[in-house]
Design goal:
Biotin transport system permease protein; transmembrane helix; membrane; mainly alpha; 0% strand; 201 residues; transmembrane
Length: 201
């Protein structure tokens, strides 16, 4: 999610122009529907659909890879477990569904400003104020959670590049320690910003 979506300066694509609420509802609907995909042809159609949506948004393969890249360590492990439990075909379908959903979530964050997502969530949660839900705070928490994903992804990329520059690609501590410290600093800065706006309780 970004306040300056990729492609800023160019004419926004039809995907960028869609309302945040529409995109979030579509993402929820696809997340519910995706488990119904149970065959390789169905999974292939889903992959083609995601690639087409990125192209429609004016985002190339690099942007798509940037969203699913963090899964490159998770997918092999998950696939190995699935091969053992449900077989190779089931493993291929399940892991493809996971990658497709992450790519779709990434597309929403790449093409939607944080403020638009926050507004959509506030409107969606407003009816629940009758049962004591603080719509503004709940929407803020959800928006911050969504925003945290690309922030941590970017941080992990910087830490990885720094580790590579020092010639310590295989040193787990050289990756984990700066990543944890950087994440804590981000959290501390966020906490300070929230406190400065009176959101300290």
């Amino acid at each position: 999610m970004t306040g300056t979506p990729p492609g800023a300066g160019r004419r926004p694509s039809v995907v960028h122009r869609l309302g945040a609420g529409t995109k979030l509802l579509a993402l929820c609907g696809l997340s519910v529907a995706m488990p119904a995909v149970g065959s390789l042809p169905g999974a292939a159609v889903a992959v083609v659909g995601v690639v087409a949506l990125y192209a429609l948004a004016g985002l190339g393969p690099r942007a798509l890879w940037g969203q699913v890249r963090p899964l490159r360590w998770v997918v092999p492990v998950l696939a190995a477990v699935q091969v053992w439990t449900v077989g190779a075909l089931g493993a291929a379908v399940l892991t493809t569904r996971l990658v497709v959903l992450v790519a779709l979530a990434g597309l929403v964050t790449l093409t939607t400003a944080t403020s638009a997502v926050l507004g959509a969530l506030e409107r969606a949660l407003r009816p629940f104020e009758r049962v004591g839900v603080d719509a503004d705070r709940a929407a803020l928490v959800l928006a911050l959670t969504l925003r945290t994903v690309p922030v941590l992804t970017a941080l992990s990329g910087r830490v990885r590049d720094a580790r590579r520059a020092r010639g310590r690609e295989r040193d787990v501590r050289a990756f984990a320690v700066p990543l944890v410290v950087g994440a804590l600093r981000q959290a501390d800065a966020l906490g300070e910003a929230l406190r400065a706006r009176g959101l300290d309780d």
